[in-house]
Amino acid sequence: MGSIDLHVGHNQSVVITLGNQIPPVSELQQKLEWVRNRIAVLDKIEVKLKEMRFLAEVAQEPGFSEAQRRDLTMKVQMLGNQVRRMDQQSQLNRRSIPNPENTNGTFFQ
Is the predicted pLDDT of residue 13 greater than 80, yes or no? Predict the structure, then answer.
């Protein structure tokens, strides 16, 4: 893809100049689909992170036995593992999108 120049004009507006080569629509659609999927995964990750925080806060309240705290800790760790897997998988999916700026056959990164 051609270069993209970004600068602030005299009236503080942003001016973007695209080089003479624009990627094919299908390539842009692939990237857009990846972004949409990534956003969906990040939304799910956010829910799990909120649940982890809630469980961690609950575990700090008085009245819980050590066994109950261990159970809550295990649940938090399980959710953490799920978050890492979801994040890794969505990152791997990104590597299947061709990167036109790389001429050596590598993928979008």
Answer: no
